[in-house]
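ok so heres the complex, two chains, lmk if somethin looks off
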Amino acid sequence: MTGWTALLLRDLRLARRVGAGAELGLVFFLILVSLLPFAIGADQRFISRIAPAFLWLSALLATLLGLDRLLQADEEEGVVDQFLLSGTPLELLVLAKALAHWLVTGLPLSLAAPLLGLMLAIEPQAMAPLALSLLIGTPALTLIGLIGAALTVSLKRGGLLLSVLVLPLTVPTLIFGATLVKEAALGRPYTTPLMLLGGMTLLMLVIAPVSAAAALRHARQ
Amino acid sequence: MAPLSTLGRVPAPALAIRGLAMARGYRTLFRDLDIDLAPGQVLQLTGPNGTGKSTLLRLIAGFLRPDAGTIRWSPLPDDATPAECLHYSGHHEGLRDGLTAQDNVATLASLLGGDPERCAAALAEVGAASLAELPVEVLSAGQRRRVALARLLAAPRPVWLLDEPFTALDRDGQALVRRLIAAHAAAGGLVIAATHQPLDLPDLRNVTLGGAAP
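and the predicted structre for the whole thing:
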C-alpha cells in the first residue's frame, strides 16, 4: 500500500471514528433546509423559486464544517513533518486529505440534496441536475477550503478567519451551481453552467494542492 | 526474535555541514557551524535550553532553510532525496488521537516507505505490543513515546534525527532508546540526538551549542 492510499484510508477512518464526518454535515444541511420555511412562512411558490440558491448556499456552509481541523490536527501532532519526509510529494498528500474530506461531506450532501429539495418543493425536473451540480461543484468548494485550511494551519482559532478567507473565493462556484439548478427548474438547457462548474473544479484541482503545500511549507519557516 | 534491521535499501550517507547560521526572532542561535559525520557515528547535541538544538535538527531534516551555510548528504542514490533517507522524531509524536497505535504506526510506515507488515514486530520491539489495539489518546506520555519510536523500526531509514528521545520514558524505556541508537549506529546508520541525558556510547561525538555571540 502506498503512502497516498494509506493517508486517504486513515482520514476516512478518522472521520468515522471521531464522528465528525458525514453524519454531522448532513444533519447541518438538513437543519438549514428545515429552517427556511420557518423564516419565510408557508409561501410554497416563493420557497420553490429560491430553493436552488438556498440548497447551494446550505451545501457551501456544510462543506465548511471540519475544514479548520483538516490540516491543523496533523500539523499540531507533527504528522505534517512526517508528510515532508515521505517520498510522496506534499501536493499529492494534501490532495488525498481533500479527497477524504469530500468523500465524507460533499458526496453525501450531493446524494441527499434531491431529498431535501423535495422538502423545499423544488421542481421535479431539477432534482437530478441538483445532485449533478453538487457532485461536480462541491469538490471545488473542498479544494478552495484546502487552501484556506493550509493558510490558517498555525492559528489556534483560525476557524472564523478560514471562513472569511474561503467564502469570497467560492462565489463563482456558487453562481454556476445555483444557475444550473435554476435553469433546470425552468426546463431550460443547462450545459453552459455545467461546463463552467466543471471548469472551476478542474481549475481548483490544479491550483489548490500546489497552494496548500506551499502554505504548509512556508508555515514552518 | 532477531532485532529488526533499521537500515533500509539506501546506504547511510555522510553529513557535511558548512558555515551554518540561523537566527530565530532577531537572535542568532549559531553561526559558522561546521559538522562532519560519517555513517556509523552518533552525534549528541547538547547546550542550554533555547540555544537552537531543536532548530538545528529541523534544519538538518530540511523543514527550515538556514540563513547561511550548507547541509550536504553524500553519497545519495540518484532517485533519493535527503528527506527520504531520514527519520525525524520531535516533541510531537506524530500520532493522531482516534486511531489505534497499530493504525498510527502502519500509516506512518506506509508514508515513510516502510512495510506496514513490520508494525507488529516494531511495536513488540519497543515494548508496546500490548498497546497495539488501544486508541493512542488513552496512552500515557511514555507509552506514546514508545509507540512513536516504533516507526523508526517499521520504516527502515539510515539517518535518525532524535529531539529529546528520552522525554517521559521510564528507566527501561531510556535503556531501550540507548540500545536502539547503539544498534543502529553499529549497523552503519547515523544518529543525531539532542538530549541532556548521557548516551553511554563509545566514540560518541558531541557538539555543544550556545557559544555564538548574541
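quick notes: Residues 3-219 of chain A form one domain. thats all i got rn
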